[in-house]
Amino acid sequence: MASNPPPTPQDNNVAFVEESLYEVHKKIHPRAVSGVFATWRWALVWFTQLLYYGLCWLPWNGRQAVLFDLVERKFYIFGLVFWPQDVFFLAILLIISAYSLFLFTAVGGRLWCGYACPQTVYTEIFMWLEHKIEGDRNARLKLDAAPMSGRKLLLRAAKYGSWILLSIWTGFTLVGYFTPITTLWGSVWNFTLGSWEVFWILFYGGFTYLMAGHMREQVCKYMCPYARFQGVMFDPDTLTITYDQERGEPRGARKKGVDYKAQGKGECVDCGICVQVCPTGIDIRNGLQYECIGCAACIDACDQVMEKMDYPKGLIRYSTEHAIEANWGWKEILGHIVRPRIILYTSILAVICVAFVWGIATKATLRVDVIRDRATLAREVEGGLIENVYRLHVMNVSETSHRYSVSVTGLNGIDMIGERILEVPPAAAKAFTVQVRVPPESGKKGSNTIYFDVKSMADEKVAVHEKATFLQP
What are the angstrom distances between the C-alpha of 239 and each of 33, 104, 163? Predict the structure, then answer.
């Protein structure tokens, strides 16, 4: 039996609805807000940016205080010098960062996202510039809806121009941590910038402009992986931004001084300001959502409304799932912060931090690598002596020049031909070739263990006892 054909748009009795798989993006214009949490947020903006833009200009021992010199393969961080052999310190630092993120998230939710994430910080700066140039939220909405005019063109040019200048300076500063900033600045004025420097300034500056100026909340909602897996680090005792439905519902407009309880309403006046100030455009009254970055702008906004209405603050506040259900105060909330997960994260983090600090504090200021010349395994020289050739790679990790004495031990009658006093400049490495000779009756045929002793002539504690192999034919 033949089946009936599917309906077509020409059938009069069939209605077709076309739906898009993707939500149409609507530009968000957050409303400016002030308050305790806004003050904290701006304090961290100032702190992080003064650190970022200023640290590369800070001198230290005749050089840049923080410099990651890729050409010389040396990283300078104030009085510390790190070489490629110190890469494990970077691994430990990454582990510390990860565990810190786990700990802070388990305790207070997305504190990193709301206050210190570069995406949040630069978006805050770009929105401040936008506010200063184009006006408040209502003015910006009107400007978006208005047709193009000379005034609109001038305002947009000023806004985009300020964004571009800030972005380029941000990219320039980043490159200044890898190329000495004073050298880089001179190259800009002399038009002698290298191709890779130009690329990274434009690349990082371009992404700063794109992410903070145009994509903004889309980075947090669609691109950042942290927003997707943050939920696994939450539990019912994690502090998150919470709307108290028991106090607020049913919401509704009313005049100040009216007995809202007699009208069967809650404390929420349904003003919508909490939505207007949200940088991701969500309504926190619908519950915790992955788009919430924990910036607490809605708390500041709601507290101001509650204050004007003579209602208690805290309709939207930092709280926990258990606290809302049981109507806990801060004493009970703080009492539940210490729990097995927090103890585990804190213990692991403390152990790793102690190990990291101990490793930095006890980091050797002298390193020696001994490489035997494999082209000549062993040879007989005048007097019947057996000779092996070695290359000593001496690294002075400190920032003072050192003279080192070199000696060799391990076999009877062993002697060394070559420089016995080595001078190495601060934070530098030098390679020296030495010949080691022993009588043929010393040691056994094959490999024999010998030791090179390299000691600072100014400080006997700075010494290396390096093992090597001597071949007897």
Answer: 22, 10, 35
